[in-house]
C-alpha cells in the first residue's frame, strides 16, 4: 500500500473527536493527533509549536526552513478535529483499507486531505527551502465547533496565502456561505395555567419574535443572491419551553440558523431585533462567509494544476483568514458527500490524486 494511504490509516486510528455536543466517545480532543503531526513535521526539519488554544486542545504549527529571508508565506491548513462518532455503522477508528477505500471517522473530513498534504511535504522536503514562498503547515483544532484554532492563528500570524484542506474533489472553493446562529431566550413566571394573568408566559415573546424574524428576514434579504452561492437562507432549528400544559412556562429558548452571503448585514438585522423585542435576549454565534478573488496569482497556479473554481454552502477555516484580508481557499481530495457520514471513507485513488496535486502545486512555486 502507498505511503500516503498508510499515513492516513495512522491518522484515522488516532481519535480526535470534537468534544462539543455528544461526541459518542470519551476519546475526545486533538492533543494526540497534534502530537503525531508535530513529530512528523519535526522529522522533516520544520520548526514546530503546539500552542494550547483551549485546555488540552492545541494547534500544531510547523514552519519549514527557507534559503532566504523575506519570502511571502504560504500556509497549508487542514483541521485535526472530527465530528461525533455517534451512530456510526463502522468501527470509527479502524482506518481499514478495504475495497479501494480507507474507512473511519475523519478519513474524508479532513484527515484525507491532511495526509496528502503531509506526504507531499515529506516527498518534497529537500525542495521546500528553495521555493518562492516560505511554507508553513498548521493542524487546526476545533474547526467543527467554534473555529477556535483558525481564529487564533489568523490573529497571531500573518500569511500571504492560505490553502485549507477540505474534501472538495480537488476543486478550488474560493467562496462559501457563512453561518450566523441567533439564540433567543425569554424568562417568565410559572403559575397554574388556570390563572395565567398571575404569571408571565415565556413562550409568547419568543414566538412573537420568531414570527417577526422570519417575515423581516424575507423582506430584507428575500431578493439577495450571489452569482455562485445562490440565495441566503434561514431555518428555525429548535424551540423549547415549558414543562407541562397546565403550568405557565417560566422559560423559553429558540435557535435560528442563517446561511449568509459575502457582504450581508446580519449585525444590523440582529440589532433591530433586540430593539423591537426587549423581553427577549438575543445572542449570536457563527462563522463568516468566504470570498477570495479568483484572479489571485496563487489561485491561478492552482488552476494551472487542473483545479476548477467553485463555491460551497458550507463554511470552513479559510474564512477567519479571509476576514483579515488574507487570500484563502479550500481544496483537497475526496468528496464532501462522505463527510460526517455513518460509514465515512475516502477512495485511495482520490487520496493519491490529492498527493499528486499538492506536489504539482508546490513544484509550481519553484
UniProtKB/TrEMBL annotation:
Top-level taxon in the UniProt lineage: Bacteria
Protein family membership: Belongs to the peptidase M20A family.
Cross-referenced PANTHER family: ACETYLORNITHINE DEACETYLASE, PEPTIDASE M20 DIMERISATION DOMAIN-CONTAINING PROTEIN
UniProt keyword list: Hydrolase, Metal-binding, Zinc
Peptidase M20 dimerisation domain location: 175-277
A single MF term (Gene Ontology): hydrolase activity
InterPro entries documented for this protein: Bact_exopeptidase_dim_dom (IPR036264), Peptidase_M20 (IPR002933), Peptidase_M20_dimer (IPR011650), Peptidase_M20A (IPR050072)
CDD domains according to UniProt: M20_ArgE_DapE-like (cd08659)
Gene3D superfamilies tied to this protein: 3.30.70.360, Zn peptidases (3.40.630.10)
Requisite cofactors: Zn(2+)
Matches recorded under Pfam families: M20_dimer, Peptidase_M20
Name of the featured protein: Acetylornithine deacetylase
The UniProt record lists the keyword Protein transport: no
Amino acid at each position: 500500500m502507498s505511503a500516503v494511504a498508510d499515513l492516513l490509516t495512522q491518522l484515522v486510528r488516532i481519535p480526535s473527536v470534537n468534544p462539543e455536543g455528544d461526541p459518542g466517545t470519551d476519546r475526545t480532543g486533538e492533543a494526540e493527533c497534534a502530537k503525531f503531526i508535530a513529530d512528523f513535521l519535526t522529522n522533516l526539519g520544520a520548526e514546530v509549536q503546539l500552542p494550547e488554544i483551549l485546555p488540552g486542545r492545541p494547534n500544531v504549527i510547523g514552519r519549514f526552513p527557507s534559503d532566504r529571508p523575506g519570502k511571502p508565506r504560504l500556509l497549508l491548513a487542514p483541521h485535526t478535529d472530527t465530528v461525533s462518532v455517534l451512530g456510526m455503522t463502522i468501527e470509527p477508528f479502524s482506518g481499514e483499507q478495504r475495497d479501494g477505500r480507507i474507512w473511519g471517522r475523519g478519513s474524508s473530513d479532513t484527515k484525507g486531505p491532511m495526509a496528502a498534504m503531509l506526504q507531499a511535504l515529506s516527498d518534497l522536503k529537500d525542495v521546500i527551502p528553495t521555493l518562492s514562498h516560505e511554507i508553513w503547515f498548521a493542524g487546526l483544532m476545533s474547526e467543527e465547533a467554534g473555529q477556535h484554532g483558525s481564529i487564533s492563528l489568523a490573529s497571531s500570524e500573518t500569511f500571504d496565502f492560505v490553502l485549507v484542506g477540505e474534501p472538495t474533489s480537488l476543486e478550488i472553493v474560493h467562496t462559501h456561505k457563512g453561518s450566523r446562529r441567533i439564540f433567543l431566550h425569554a424568562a417568565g413566571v410559572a403559575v397554574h395555567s388556570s390563572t395565567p394573568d398571575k404569571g408571565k408566559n415565556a413562550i409568547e415573546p419568543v414566538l412573537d419574535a420568531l414570527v417577526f424574524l422570519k417575515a423581516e428576514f424575507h423582506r430584507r434579504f428575500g431578493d439577495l443572491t450571489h452569482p455562485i452561492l445562490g440565495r441566503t437562507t434561514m431555518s428555525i432549528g429548535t424551540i423549547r419551553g415549558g414543562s407541562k400544559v397546565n403550568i405557565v412556562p417560566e422559560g423559553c429558548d429558540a435557535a435560528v440558523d442563517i446561511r449568509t452571503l459575502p457582504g450581508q448585514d446580519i449585525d444590523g438585522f440582529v440589532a433591530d431585533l433586540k430593539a423591537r423585542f426587549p423581553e427577549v435576549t438575543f445572542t449570536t454565534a457563527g462563522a463568516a462567509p468566504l470570498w477570495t478573488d479568483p484572479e489571485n496569482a496563487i489561485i491561478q497556479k492552482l488552476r494551472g494544476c487542473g483545479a476548477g473554481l467553485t463555491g460551497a454552502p458550507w463554511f470552513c477555516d479559510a474564512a477567519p483568514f479571509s476576514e483579515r484580508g488574507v487570500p484563502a481557499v479550500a481544496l483537497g481530495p475526496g468528496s464532501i458527500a462522505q463527510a460526517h457520514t455513518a460509514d465515512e471513507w475516502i477512495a485511495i485513488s482520490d487520496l493519491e490524486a490529492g498527493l499528486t496535486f499538492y506536489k504539482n502545486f508546490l513544484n509550481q512555486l519553484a
